[in-house]
Structures are given as structure tokens and as C-alpha cells.
Description:
Order of helices and strands: EHEEEEEEHEEEHE
Structural class: alpha+beta
Helix content: 10-25%
Amino acid sequence: MxxxxxxxxxxxxxxDDAVRFWVDVLGIxxxxxxxxxxxxxxxxxxxxxxxTLSVAFAQAGKLQIELIQELSDTPSAYTGSARGEPHHVAIxxxxxxxxxxxxxxxxxxxxxxxxxxxxxxERFVYFASAGPGPLxxxxxxxxxxxxxxxxxxxxxxxxxxxxxxxxxxLSR
Length: 172
């Protein structure tokens, strides 16, 4: 199984400060910022938790950048993460069960999993780190999420220098 990394994620203390850095210093834009999102379903080591986040997405070439600020005080895959270092690499898949099983067969162990919105096609799992490097996240990306991510990539490709930071919302 050859793996294509689709996203590089960072846990940040302040999503607005982090976005400003990526825009002003690295020249990555536009960023789409989604605020105060509570995951519809989330389990950490099998225990249900309520996790609320603000996240920002931008495209950098073929790689999506995700900046995550956890707003809740619950244990999660984001708790205790080193700030400024890559937190996870995400593998996007249309065959979630197959790919999750493949990573488990390689010895990776589930750390946190659930569904971002509770709708079909929104499952994710973070695997506990099994060696040097960031966590591995497998994300189910079906038509609706693929369209959202495609729009972010299109915005980067067509970016004209205006509106480097864009407020966004997830309609449920």
C-alpha cells in the first residue's frame, strides 16, 4: 500500500495568530477559518468526549495545511501536543474501512476517532504515534467533503492577493 499524504496538521494555541504567521511569513493563502466546531462524535481510547475546536485550512501546493486550536478542556489527540511542530499527517480516503484496517495491520493503535459532523462520509481516526514523526490521521473524504476541500484548493490556485483570511462555516 502506497500512502499519499493529503494534509499536514498543526495544533496551535491561537488559530488567528497561527493563520497570520502562515499568511504573512510563509505566504500561504487564503485560509478558511471555521470557529467553535464541536465534533458530533468523538472517542478517546474508547471513552466518549466532547471536543470543540477552531480550525483553519489552506492549500500549499498539493498539501493542505490544517491549524487546530482546541477550545475544550477534554482529553483528545490534541492535548499536550508540541506547538509549532507537525501534529499529524492525514490520509484522505474513499475506502475508510480498508485503509484503517491496513494501518492497524501495520501495528498502529487507535487513539481518537469519531465523526466531524455525524453525517455519512465524515469519519476520522487518529492513530497513536508508533515512532518518530507526527500522528497519522485517516479521514473519510466522500463527495461533500471532497467538494469542500476542492474549493479550498481552487481558492489557493486562483488566489489574487485579496481576502487572505476568510471566515467559513460548516452547514449541518
